[in-house]
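testing teh design pipeline on a random one, pls ignore if ur not involved
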C-alpha cells in the first residue's frame, strides 16, 4: 500500500512538472514577412558619416545581400527599380571627412567611401579628382531624363538604362592644365584627355582596382557596352581582386560577367 502511494505521488509530481514546462515556454513568434524587410522603392536611406569610419574601411560597408559585380545595367538590361533600388543605402559624398567636392552628389555607401580612398591615394601623388556635378553618382529616373535632354555627347542613355541608378558609378573630373596652361577641372574623355595627360590616366588605372573600381566604358569595347569609351565613368565592383582581373585582362564588365557565368 505504501509503495502504491509513493508511486502515485511521483506520478502527480511528474505531471505537475510537465504542466509547468508547457506554460513557461515562450509562445511561438510568427516569422516576419519577407516584404517587411524591403524598403519602399520611394524611400532613400541617407547614411550618416561618423568619425569612426575611415575611407580605407569601405569593405566593412559592403551589403552582403547586394550583388555589386553582377548588377549589370546597359541598353539590353534595364535597371531593377523594384529589387536592387529598394535595398540601396545612399551616402552624401559632400559630408565625407576632410574631403571637398565640386558639388553635392550621392553614391551607394561602400562606393562612396571607396571613392574617398581613391581620392586620397591620388592626392598623395599630387593628383586631384572631383565629381562632375550633383548627378555624378546616384541618379533618379528624373535626373537621367534631364541629363539625356541636355547632353550632346554619345555617353548618354535614357532613364532606366544608366548604371548611375545603381549608385555604383561615379563621373569624375581631373584638376589639370588645359591647352592654355590654365589649371581647371577637366572631364577625362578618351579622345583628347589621355593624349594630353597620359600620366594622370596611368595613375588612375593603377589606383582604381585598389579601391574596388574599374573603368566602366573602356576603349575598344564600344560594340559591347554600347557606349563611347571614356575614363569619366568609374564603376564600383566591391572587390579589388575582381577589379584587378578585369583590368589586367582588358575586359569590360559585360565580358567579365560572361566569363564568370
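output:
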Amino acid at each position: 500500500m505504501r509503495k502504491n502511494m509513493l508511486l502515485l505521488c511521483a506520478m502527480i509530481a511528474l505531471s505537475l512538472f510537465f504542466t509547468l514546462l508547457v506554460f513557461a515556454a515562450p509562445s511561438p513568434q510568427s516569422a516576419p514577412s519577407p516584404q517587411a524587410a524591403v524598403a519602399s522603392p520611394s524611400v532613400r536611406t541617407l547614411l550618416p558619416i561618423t568619425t569612426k569610419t575611415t575611407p580605407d574601411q569601405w569593405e566593412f560597408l559592403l551589403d552582403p545581400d547586394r550583388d555589386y559585380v553582377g548588377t549589370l545595367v546597359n541598353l539590353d538590361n534595364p535597371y531593377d527599380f523594384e529589387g536592387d533600388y529598394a535595398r540601396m543605402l545612399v551616402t552624401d559624398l559632400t559630408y565625407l571627412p576632410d574631403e571637398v567636392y565640386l558639388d553635392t552628389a550621392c553614391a551607394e555607401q561602400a562606393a562612396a567611401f571607396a571613392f574617398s580612398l581613391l581620392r586620397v591615394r591620388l592626392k598623395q601623388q599630387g593628383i586631384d579628382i572631383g565629381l562632375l556635378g550633383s548627378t555624378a553618382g546616384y541618379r533618379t529616373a528624373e535626373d537621367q531624363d534631364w541629363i539625356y535632354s541636355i547632353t550632346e555627347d554619345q555617353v548618354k542613355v535614357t532613364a532606366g538604362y544608366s548604371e548611375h541608378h545603381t549608385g555604383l558609378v561615379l563621373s569624375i573630373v581631373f584638376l589639370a592644365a588645359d591647352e592654355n596652361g590654365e589649371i581647371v577641372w577637366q572631364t577625362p574623355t578618351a579622345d583628347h584627355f589621355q593624349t594630353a595627360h597620359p600620366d594622370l590616366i596611368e595613375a588612375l588605372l593603377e589606383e582604381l582596382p585598389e579601391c574596388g573600381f574599374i573603368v566602366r566604358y573602356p576603349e575598344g569595347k564600344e560594340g559591347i557596352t554600347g557606349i563611347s569609351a571614356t575614363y569619366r565613368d568609374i564603376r564600383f565592383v566591391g572587390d579589388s581582386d575582381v577589379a584587378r582581373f578585369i583590368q589586367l585582362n582588358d575586359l569590360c564588365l559585360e565580358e567579365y560577367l560572361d566569363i564568370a557565368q
